[in-house]
Amino acid sequence: MLHTGAGSGCDGAPSETISRIKEENPGQYDLVRNDAGGFHQKLKFWGIRGRAYEEAHLYDLTFTWRNSPGKVWFLTRPGDTTQVENETPEYLLAHYACSAIGASNVWKDRAEPKPVFDARYVHKHMVERAQECPLAMVVLMELMVTQVV
User: Same domain, yes or no, for 54 and 18?
Assistant: First the structure.
């Protein structure tokens, strides 16, 4: 073990304890590997995402279907990932649907031929809109982060 190290795969308090011991004793436990469980990693991610984007737009958008601060915080500061993961696909689809409508409205009254209207065109429209509007840029960044999980 002195030369090969030791591995740990655990979740919750044991994982946190191992991480804390390694931080408090730098260099002493370099060969100890700790892999925290997926649930807590996702929980941490959704909490960071919620706190990072809550004031910018998540609170206002989420409040449209969750009509109290506590219900919004349930998604932006979750204690369980299930609810966030259940609502995220609809949340993403709503953004892309609105972006597709916005992209098509750009060409609504133009006489020239319309470009090929596909996912790449909608994404290009979203990027162009984000370059014009800081809030659109924040929303686009949050969408990219959200799709990672």
Answer: no
